[in-house]
Amino acid sequence: MTGRIDQEYQTLKDHSHRWVVERLDEAGIEVGRASRERLNDFIRGQVSQYISQNRVPLSTQDLNQLIRDTLDEVTGFGPLEPLLADERINDILVNGPNQVFVEIAGVLQHARVRFINDEHILRIIRRMLAPLGRRLDEASPMVDARLPDGSRVNAVIPPLALEGPTLSIRKFTGNHLSAKDLIARGSMTEACLDVLVRAVESRRNIIVSGGTGTGKTTMLNLISQYIPREERVLTIEDSAELVLHHPHVVRLETRPANTEGKGRITARDLVINALRMRPDRIILGEVRSGEIIELLQAMNTGHEGSMSTIHANSTRDALVRIETLLAVNGYDASEKAIGRLIGSALDIIIQLVRMPDGRRRVSDVVALAPTADNPYNMDYLYRSEDHEYA
């Protein structure tokens, strides 16, 4: 489709949508209460009437497409509907009306959908946020939220976003990859899985390290399945993504501040509270800030087998990142004392990488074996053939 023809279609879709919304108001039909079948029939009839009255030359195929698009506009999230329905897609990134990208199998690619204009993007964002009670305007130009299906949504609008509204969606799926799936895809070997299972069952404290999109949450989900069934597990996340098929799980989620800037509950608050809830293990979705202090102390004081993830590109980087988080969040101790704390608290680091072709892989599994001179002495329990990418 050429640019001119595509723009004409977007304009037609905009006019058709406005026409249908007006007819819905006149007919007293509430979209939230009407059945899908009734809405489908009504919208099909009204779009066909609009095309006929305005003598728009459309093929049957294009008319059906316009009806589907208008139905998505009225009842769903417009151009995003087919992307949200596509199970292959993990991330949806909207940088502008003509700049929509998706991630499939670890590779970003341009999506064949577009928005009419910036106002169209903003309308869809606000429709997503409305049921959640979240606002997005010039006074609050940035929002992070979770959709009812568990998908994470982040939106930024001007004046912070210089080129117009931007939207990022990390889709939630309850169908996480199994060990068998990861082995079949070459993400790890049977030998690697054996190492990980033994580490979990022997209550080793584990950090899963990796860069963006390397599958840290997937790995945390996977290894958590091997926690003994008789243990009590507490999970702490900013957006609930972990799906533990375990009989005794308590799930906690952080809370952002309200529109008055009050009521924020941080991961650090939840880790402190979790220690009063008699957990056998604490699973922290990601270490980002001051919660690292309480997590390391918990790992050192009777909560062996706890786990988390951290954003780092190598096992050494993960340790440096933890040191930095401790320092910037007020942990007042000497470099030697910090090294001893980390070395005694952490047992295992699982390093994940993303290969040039988009595949994710376990590159290293190391055990911390502190010595008098080196609190970060490492023993390699597993190393992939492609560890040079780490």
UniProtKB/TrEMBL annotation:
InterPro entries: AAA+_ATPase, P-loop_NTPase, T2SS/T4SS_dom, T4SS_GSP_E_ATPase. This is CpaF family protein. PANTHER family: TWITCHING MOTILITY PROTEIN PILT (PTHR30486), TYPE II_IV SECRETION SYSTEM ATPASE (PTHR30486:SF15). CDD domains: VirB11-like_ATPase (cd01130). It comes from Alloalcanivorax xenomutans. GO terms for molecular function: ATP hydrolysis activity. Belongs to the GSP E family. Residues 202-356 form the AAA+ ATPase domain.
